[in-house]
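Listing S7. Sequence submitted for prediction.
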Amino acid sequence: MVISCTSGVHPAGTRLFIAYPTISSFDAMPNTITAGQSAILFWNVVGVTSVNIDLNRDAGCIGAQTVTPLKTTVYTITATNFLGTVSKSVVITVNPQPISITFEANPATIMSGGYATLLWNVNGATSVSIDQTIGQVPPSGNKLVNPTATTSYTLTASNVSGTITRSVTLVVNPPIVATFTASPTTTFSGQGTTLQWNVTGANTVSIDPDIGTVPLSGSRTVNPYSTTTYTLVASSDCCVASKSVTVTVGRAYPTPYPSTFTPFIEIFTVSPASIHVGQTATISWYVVGANSIYLSGIGYVSYSGSVSVTPATTTSYTMQASNSYAIRTRTITVVVTP
């Protein structure tokens, strides 16, 4: 097939080429694009039998074509007739897509032994990686991490134009560990008991009621006039922990105790009242006016004291106090759970 676009005509009707083919124009608009964008090639040729643009054969004498190169590309038009071939090239420069990154840790603060999730989304990169032994990752995703100490994670994204980074810091707080005791846990009105505590992993420590802020470790003598529960509260950047201890306060009796009184079990408590199998509870008591005091499961005991018990199942303990006038009993139960 002969396509001349513009040529002389022989009287017999045969097309006669008297010059080499001419490429009047071959351009791209625009000449520079960003990866993912498109450009238009347009051309005009005369005096030809065929027109090719790279792999596009029979492109025609006049035309336009949309192209979306992934990288900088040279396009060549070739025009041919019986006298020969001419060509012309145009370059479309492709700039890499700019890299955009979002990178965060959720939550940004955890306790030691806890977990957080790294989340990221990267556009325009050909390579994405995260340090701290994570390595290559897809352009978007998430990763569960559990560092034992405060750790910075850096995401690195690259393409042909360069590399950029983003970092996040995951703050790890040590757990709050607290001990809090009262000695003794059983006392009498007007007498004292000593609170002792030791806390690690906290920023502030306070004790209520009536004590307020205290150092991380220490002791304080208190003189409650009635049974009182003291609560220690320890706080860090991420967490709050509390522990409580109850001081049981009994009434003070005249000494000697009148012999005409019936016996009285003033104090009979267990702490804690609920335990797990293998744990220990402490039974405490104070009895007045008794000649004989018997605690089931333990035996005969003195008028005041305490004893540790480790029952395997839920167990009730009964105290019997007697004198020549009467017998008094009280029962407490230690609940044992698996």
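Caption to Listing S7: primary sequence and predicted structure tokens for the chain studied. DSSP finds no helices and 33 strands in the chain. Residues 100-173 form a domain with the Immunoglobulin-like fold (CATH 2.60.40.10).
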